Amino acid sequence: MRTAAPAAEVVTLALAEDAPWGDVTSEALLPADAVADAQLVAREPGVLAGTGAAREAFTQTAHLTAGSLELLELAPDGTRFAAGDVLGHVRGTARGVLRAERIALNLLQHLSGVATHTAAFVEAVAGTNARIVDTRKTTPGLRALERAAVRAGGGHNHRWSLSDAVLVKDNHLAVLLAAGLDVTTALKSVRDSVSHTTVIEVEVDRLDQLEAVLAAGVDVVMLDNFSLADLTEGVRVVRERSRALVEASGGVNLSTVRAIAGTGVDLISVGALTQNSRTLDLGLDTTVSA
């Protein structure tokens, strides 16, 4: 079950954090009937994401301020844009526009940064069979939004949470070995204890671990921090022995991802998509009339 907060919950918390007792500046300075027109303008090129959250910020603010506030147009997630492009238009009370502005921009800038970074990785592996996927290295509470941004950039999502798939990592294997348990037998028992639709993936960090893992009939093998030569050999061994997908992980960046894809892996997981993406420069240019 997906428990990460959807846009409405994230925005509710963000608005409460940003203006717990209202916007003192706007309420003291601006007439209640002042009207604002604002355009969302790109200051640099990129890929848009977070539009649902931005729309939610303006909608919730309209209710909080009991004023008129309408997002008249907004480009959809996944839109590629150039510097200077107008991506949206909002009109309503000036107090409302300015109260919603920072929350809407924070989410749009962060999530568009994720989408833009993802798109760069996707473009880097174009023409190969490799898919770029994210990881659980997401901002707490923002997983649903960040993973939607990865999709907007052309990437794919890994398992949603610890509850959704079996992923046996190096620490799991270390515990099994320390307990004197046979890895193949233990992995086969996992299949008997979960639903037949549950994906079972196992991470290995050495080629000599593959035999025991493949003998268990797992669905995905993750080759973690392998050299290019070992990745190529790992793919060959997996293809000969099973129908499992092969995932590469560790040490992935824009300068290495193309070569990693060239080894024949099916998936390349990149924590940097959500962990290291920079915010994109987007602005809300506003004019106000009485």
From TrEMBL:
One of its GO terms (cellular component) is cytoplasm. Pathway: Cofactor biosynthesis; NAD(+) biosynthesis; nicotinate D-ribonucleotide from quinolinate: step 1/1. GO terms for biological process: NAD+ biosynthetic process; quinolinate catabolic process. It is an enzyme of class 2 (transferase). Gene3D superfamilies: Aldolase class I, Quinolinate phosphoribosyl transferase, N-terminal domain. Substrate binds at residues 102, 135-137, 159, 169, 203, 224, 249-251, 270-272. Hexamer formed by 3 homodimers. Involved in the catabolism of quinolinic acid (QA). This is Nicotinate-nucleotide pyrophosphorylase [carboxylating].
